[in-house]
């Protein structure tokens, strides 16, 4: 099972008083025997007066009997333990409302994205940047320049509850909570010692993993001083790529080089579709060890020792001498010699290591006031290969006097009266593949106080804290080539004394070592060291976050329907980042001068950098600060034996950003516990924002030369890619309407909820291409016209500033369904209890309008190449006794399409357009996974457990691309296969 929705104790929102103890306050006996409701705060039973108040993550209000209108699902420590995952991120990401999260199986084909190895959560498919992830209700320093946190850096063994708020929460918690909030709640008063040891691997004997966790807590000084500490180490070794060819890793047979074969639009007037999904796709622009791709020698490939042979194109293709191949559609044939395919050379999962340390020291000044300190250290290292070799797609020119060419090719050149030819190669002869090593190291310190006091005859509670956090991220790439050195090294000739030298005298004088890429030949180590120096691309980033926060809440006075509760507070936050790229990627500047590790080289571009095959990191920095204050009210408006109880929940927040000025957010909602047994209605609408992050505001500048169409003519200009400090916050309207049924007398043990949600986001921050900016300016957008100058008499003064703008919009509509039923088997003279739970999200529509000339809104719902299927579901069935437990769970993704903008047809197809292309088959299969887990108490304090995920070893569904990537979608589909895990927990 990936998760179990909260049990009877775990979903009860913990009161301020209950948080002073090691365990949550117990529910009444009737509730303990009944089913755990799927929606945390809305299904909570009436709380006894001794419990005081209920606190939930969907609101800042803490009040007796309070029920927030924003849906919140909670997972307790027992549920998290049953999931038996090496990382809590994996458990949370399986919730149906979580869509588009990033983990160690995503971005494995990326060198420069900056999110490699980052475990970040995304609600509603809106992206991690629109999901606010908190630790004990507090912000955590970002793990990359977009500001998103890395859950892998959190102290996970001490987490006793995770609250997932599936609704806009900016008025309560501030920026980034457009999609909602995920709040990790730790056990602040843990007593005793507990440990967890776990290991596992896949059916294919790879991705071997081990986890070691321990936590200790003890009180001193008559229970006034409480110390808690935990340490965690985890290693998931990943799944290495097999390298070249159509071969899945370690016996996985599902990889088939699936790709799109795309005909030119001009040819689609024949009634046939433009797109066809093909298996066994082979690019005809290169071969494993080299291929001549144009001219009279086209189709000549090179094998062992550089011996030429006729390449097998597949599709019965024949080279035309012009670069094209008969029977094939550029750039793919079907079948043939697939040995040089690079798609399978991407790691399926990264090798990831977690090291986390955490401590909390709290001291009670008196029974009503506590001061505390928490310190959190988290280090996450990952390693992966984005692709093997360094494919050159017919973009190399080989001179016919190249010293490494076999005599037969030299003679053929002379016979055909050519002096050079185009050439492509996968560079499979390289001794090592590109390997990327991101490391994130967080240090976070919090000093705070909380407690209660009397004011106006009422009891009020407060919490305040100051936080300093920093995250240092180092991305280092090894065994990757410098483009200009590679080009110089392969252009080899015979020197005056017959030895082979680099043709370019400047290159030869600066240390160039000739490189033979003609066939499968041993690479000269000196040549590889020259083109791929040990000091590869590097990016060093430091992010800091400083927060000061004060919050107070209480019941101001009593009304005829109940207490009117108030929560208010203020917060100051400062975010800063600085990033330094290596001189070869960034270009030489005062911040990154040439060094002994990166010596000056006349072949390299010292002005703008961009010299590496990939991973050209650039330097930048930026800072912004935020001041904000909020007020939230809960006003009971109805209390009747006949009509039930109702309350109104309102909140407002005023925020001042140093970069974009003021922003106002608000929330208006209510709940009605009707007079119908167990029936509750809820509704909430809110205005939410996401402020531009550091990356969008202060992106590291990159300068290149470019050409685009302007007023009907091609214009050359300098393209300056930078951040945009004039960006405004994204503006969202989030509405949720729901029905909750909680343990009615006619169905004891049963709870269910249905919620309709509608999220509209305007002014979405999105990056544009230079051509798109030019088109928008021509259409009259004056803001974008200010980012360019193209009418200069001297073309050298033309420029276009490429940056992000508030142009796009999003709208996501759907339905959440949750249900649970729990029955005690002792009523049937059987041991234990049974629990049935199910959660599902139906995405009705997810429209994205780029706001760009020549584009149309795109529909993402049911686009299974993305992150939002029409249906995502999770169901669990559990049997639990005091000694044993057994849990079966099912995960479901509905079938979908490759793109909702495609027109599916086989014959009589309309002519394709840029916005509506035709495709032969637009159907993409869904997936259904079954997991099994269980535990047995083997001693008084010791429990052994096991877990099998994806029992049926269901293969991932092929996800075609227009290039030969790994052709799967790890955001939606299980790519690991069957996984076995087992472990032992000790709790004393």
UniProtKB/TrEMBL annotation:
Signal peptide: 1-18
Protein name: TonB-dependent receptor
Family: Belongs to the TonB-dependent receptor family.
Keyword terms: Cell outer membrane, Membrane, Receptor, Signal, Transmembrane, Transmembrane beta strand, Transport
Residues of the TonB-dependent receptor plug domain: 67-181
InterPro entries: Beta-barrel_TonB_sf, Plug_dom, Plug_dom_sf, TonB-dep_rcpt-like
Pfam families per UniProt: Plug
Membrane topology: Multi-pass membrane protein
Coiled coil spans: none
Segments crossing the lipid bilayer: none
Compartment list: Cell outer membrane
UniProt source species: Duganella aceris
Main location: membrane
Alphabetical list of Gene3D superfamilies matching this protein: TonB-dependent receptor, beta-barrel domain (2.40.170.20), TonB-dependent receptor, plug domain (2.170.130.10)
Domain of life of the source: Bacteria
